[in-house]
């Protein structure tokens, strides 16, 4: 019995550290609607700074003072980031802030190694909380007890802050309807900055409090960020109490789950999230999201098919790309093939995200399923390459059909997180089912047949498929189906009122996007000759998101450019420098600031501005051309 | 960084394409790939190790009179990126062979690439048995003692312990799984009387140490096998110390004696664990002394195990290239098979039968000295003594 009590308390201690970080994320999202990918980075910097301070300052006051000081210092960094970077892009399309914070995270990961060195750092134990307390023969670390008390105390303080202060009232109001708060004359700028500072403070505090029990190292951020997101979503976005309950739920399920299934930890949080979201689409304590007011960008600048000139230009670009084998070496061709494959992957997500308004955080699942489909067919059934390429993506299609059915019942961030959960479940199956998938050692020896083996032939194959896919998806955008899909994106209510079966349309779009991603994955398996669980992993999903956002989420085919730029830059930087994350992160942040609509989005805006500012004769001249399309 | 740029050479090799080649026709190039950005704690000393080797080789006149150049790439911890790097090294840099890699799945990906493209690959670090056995191929050789060898070394010591009730804690991925599997198999062969009472599989890098320690303690084992390392190990040790998990229990632990993993533990180092590792401070052989002196003189820092691996990888590569007198992969294979060479750990041989080197490891016990973790009572275990019989190996390895 004593054992179960102690195990429960241990779970509570884990919950407390999770809650601290999660609450910060929840507050930030609730008010600013920023999906703050850098939250883990702030957590990590908190731990690093606290390590340095506790090594310098001695004594009990020194230790606790260092913890608070570290959190305050990081909060200050957070304020700086908010004012310099995020303020510029609040009006950018949704999720664009994710790109900025992703760039920051990349930079921080390299920076901490530069500043603090590559070794794992082990900080001091907390003075007064070094030992353990005996509980009927079981030991409970006193630091755990401290954390168990701290969790609810922080919850209480936050509750008081939100319920009893004017600032808290404003924050809650903004969480509900930030436009209305702005309309009532509240200075939003400072409200957002202060909220961001509080959130970052909590993250850094959570990180600093880890030093007596963890090692401080440069991968701490990734370890926590996804888990924290999951906790926030299970609890319900913007709900502090929800975050607390979810943290306890997840930690306790883990603490007791490992007694029966020792391998459960790897997937537990995602299973819980999938179940919770299917049963309660807005999390445990969340409320249905108020219909978001659309950014006007979409209505002001309606999509149109390419003009004949633009078509010719695209064709010329394609032909130019097809001449690459005439002058480039094998390496350049292989890189070219990889980029072409990522174009397929990016446009498939773009179709779901921009046309359907459904941002998936787990799109790599279908890419990876396509790759695994090919690997199974080629290695187990021994089918020829063409057949594998045609049938392999069907695995992605089936996955998308099953998961898409559940996912499209939700919207916004909840949709995104459910797709993430499904992707992680697929990933863990690939990872754990060693006898079939080879586990993390993957499936090797999936090389192309002779006719496609030479780099130039494979490049033409990849390029051809990429072009076909891009054109097919564009055709779909301007087909009746595409219009229906865009209608569900722009107004679910109105589209249903005119008789569009929104869920079915979205589901179809999900399946199309998943199958297309599967095509990319199938080619990828042959390009690399092997398949690994990595091909389904979070980082690949994030890559896809970054490519779409970089290209411009409000454009018809920005993802193509986004994929080319991001992938080429990534490969080049990784090859040239060990600090590729720092440089790439910096580049992304720069792009975000300079091109808040993405690269293609910005180019389109410039083109339009030029059209408007040209002599009065030209708009009239332009009109008949446009209507002639 | 500066040194690296020197080795990397042409920053615009990508643009210049073939032009760079003719300029350095007299050099012999080796392509090196590792997870520099993902695992700096291991790969930084590793890099220092191979840079020292390159310097020594060129100071001694290069390889058959030609200068050795190592072109190094980061794989970011992803198999797919490692293949891109391998491709660049082979196709556009024209390297004579590939070396390096740390993670098992990356080692396997590059080995498969080498097999497909018919390139010689000397795997430095990946531990999985698959590299030389179940997924072995004729182009791939490996330097470091495999999972099986390290398990066999530990089992030798562990089987002498009186403990009968054993529990295991291992990261939930291939390395942890196969380490536990081999250890259990070899242990049960030697000691049919032992029971396996609990196993814990925390996700790699994400151990929730409190509940794990508690769960293991609840099974009340007499001895524990640990396979976690890095930050997970730190958390496990800290929780285990506070909760008294290790009190009165024997612990056998993979890799914990390596400075990379032992040093961060500082004064929390648990005493009396039986570990594999690298006690650089107590190895007193002329070969190691020479290495240690050269390393400390160049870097003013002590070597980690990674330094040894990096150093010996390039030394081995150079020895193979020198003997082959050619960069033709088939000749390199012929030269490498059965080739013996000196190393800081004594003479090693690349076995013909499975392309595994006989580099060994040190087994000893952890202890606390002046607030730091050290390995004591350590002795060197030759790799050749801990490999299964040739008949068994032939069954494990596919025919080329």
From TrEMBL, chain A:
Q: Which Pfam families match?
A: BPD_transp_2 (PF02653)
Question: Which GO BP terms apply?
Answer: amino acid transport
Q: Where are the transmembrane segments?
A: 6-27, 34-51, 63-86, 98-117, 145-162, 190-212, 224-249, 256-279, 312-333, 340-361, 381-406, 413-434, 458-485, 505-527, 547-569, 581-603
Q: Which GO terms describe its cellular component?
A: plasma membrane
Q: Name one GO molecular function term.
A: branched-chain amino acid transmembrane transporter activity
Q: Where does the protein end up?
A: Cell membrane
The name this protein carries in UniProt is Amino acid/amide ABC transporter membrane protein 1 (HAAT family) /amino acid/amide ABC transporter membrane protein 2 (HAAT family)
